Amino acid sequence: MDAIALVLLGLPMTLLVTVSSFGIGAIVGIPLMLGLRSNYPPIRAVFRVIVDLIRGVPTIVWLFLLYFGVTFGHLRLSSLSAAIAGLGIVSSAYLAEIYRGGFATLARGQIEASHALGLGRTTTFIRVLAPQALRTSLPSITTFLLALLKDSSIASTIGVTEMVFSATTFSRQNPGTAGLMPFFIAAGVYVVVSVPLAVVARRLDSRLRRNH
């Protein structure tokens, strides 16, 4: 099998790890963000410690801890499950900070105005604040997603057969100059996938701003 075909075989796994871990982070990041924005200092402090701890531990360490350290009797997480869970945990902390920053840019008066109109806290959050915070946070969210796509290559260290793992396999079987080719191919694929995503995100951001 040639280098191009071997690397492309790893592309679906790269996308699976990226999309799944981003989805986990996007969901789990919401309660983390709410904790960071709590009106009660002790709660804020607890969530601040959690988020800083998650962000402070290198991603590869999270993957190793989950893959080699988490067991259920005689069972342990598969390399794919550990990779998605580890990257999802890291994503949740970073996205929580991005969400928090988006809400921090909103004027306090909007909350007071919403309450004056008789809107409840949940309605105010979902219908008034969240859409604006999302619009503000979208560039940062996109930047993080692009970084996560590249960071998915770390999953190769625990045996996930994504693109870098495939490139490494080919390189070991073909030492010398030929062994470098799959890494250039993998780099090209990352660019091909990343650029359209960045373009779509910019257009979506522009559309949201026009509709504001």
Looking at the chains present, what oligomeric state does this protein adopt?
single chain
**Beta-sheet strand percentage?**
under 5%
Strand order of the largest sheet: 1-2
Report the span from N to C terminus.
52 Å
Q: Round the Cα radius of gyration to an integer and report it.
A: 20 Å
Portion of residues within helices: over 70%
**Quantity of strands, as a count:** 2
Class from secondary-structure proportions: mainly alpha
User: How can the largest sheet be summarized?
Assistant: 2 strands, antiparallel
The helix/strand series, from N terminus to C terminus, equals HHHHEEHHHHH
Overall morphology? flat
Overall residue-averaged pLDDT value: 88
Helical segment tally? 9
Note poorly predicted spans: none
Explain what you see.
It contains 9 helices and 2 strands, in the order ααααββααααα. The protein has helices at 3-9, 11-36, 41-56, 59-69, 79-104, 108-116, 121-151, 163-173, 181-211; strands at 71-72, 75-76. Strands 1-2 form a two-stranded antiparallel ribbon. Strand 1 and strand 2 (75-76) form a beta hairpin. The longest helix has 31 residues, at 121-151.
Keywords:
9 helices; 2 strands; about 210 residues; mainly alpha; flat; single chain; two-stranded antiparallel ribbon; about 80% helix
